[in-house]
Amino acid sequence: MRVVGAGAARVDRPGYVWIAVALEIFTAIGAIPVGLMFLADPTGASIQMQPGWIEGTVFKSYLVPGLYLLFVNGFGMLLLAALTVRRHPIAPWLTGALGVGMIVWILVEILVLPATMILTWVFLATGFGLGFVALFWLRRTGQLRLW
């Protein structure tokens, strides 16, 4: 990590970190509208989700998943993209945390829901992409020493 300016810490941002910024924005673009639709209609009918799918889970409606999509995978990813662009010292760690969060989210979805869509697999790959960028970014900045 290097210090730039009067007391302002900024983390190095190697070129490959722009992949994370693109993935974060891509995730937000997908999550915000769906989160809003789930909040407006927790049955999921407005986006052709089968009501029986969510009823077989602990949630019973799409309200909680909608809140998660909106605030974590939506606004959280946008905030993370901004922090990454500004080279904030917490950005590599948040990239890893939100990447792992996405992986867990999608794996639970795969295990719980009776069917998947192509976007399920795209967002699983996105989570792994964020995780790998974070791993190498943290390693490069010396914040994580695994090898």
The SSE order reads EEHHHHH
- Gyration radius, to the nearest Å? 17 Å
Tally of extended strands?
Answer: 2
Class per helix and strand makeup: mainly alpha
- Which ranges are low-confidence, i.e. pLDDT below 50, for 5 or more consecutive residues? 1-7
Spatial order of strands in the largest sheet: 1-2
Termini separation comes to 18 Å
Number of domains: 1
Determine the strand fraction and express it as a percent band.
under 5%
Overall pLDDT confidence = 90
The major pleated sheet works out as: 2 strands, antiparallel
Number of separate helices: 5
Identify the overall geometry: elongated
Helix content: 55-70%
Note down, in words, how this protein is organized.
The chain has 147 residues and is mainly α. It has one domain. The protein contains five helices and two strands; from the N terminus they run E-E-H-H-H-H-H. Strands 1-2 form a two-stranded antiparallel sheet. A hairpin with a 5-residue loop joins strand 1 and strand 2. Helix 1 crosses helix 5, helix 3 packs antiparallel against helix 4 and helix 4 runs antiparallel to helix 5. The longest helix has 24 residues. The radius of gyration is 17 Å and the shape is elongated.
How is the topology of this model organized?
Layout: E1 2-3, E2 9-10, H1 17-40, H2 51-55, H3 63-85, H4 91-112, H5 118-141
Antiparallel strand pairs: 1-2
Helix pairs in contact: 1-3, 1-5, 3-4, 4-5
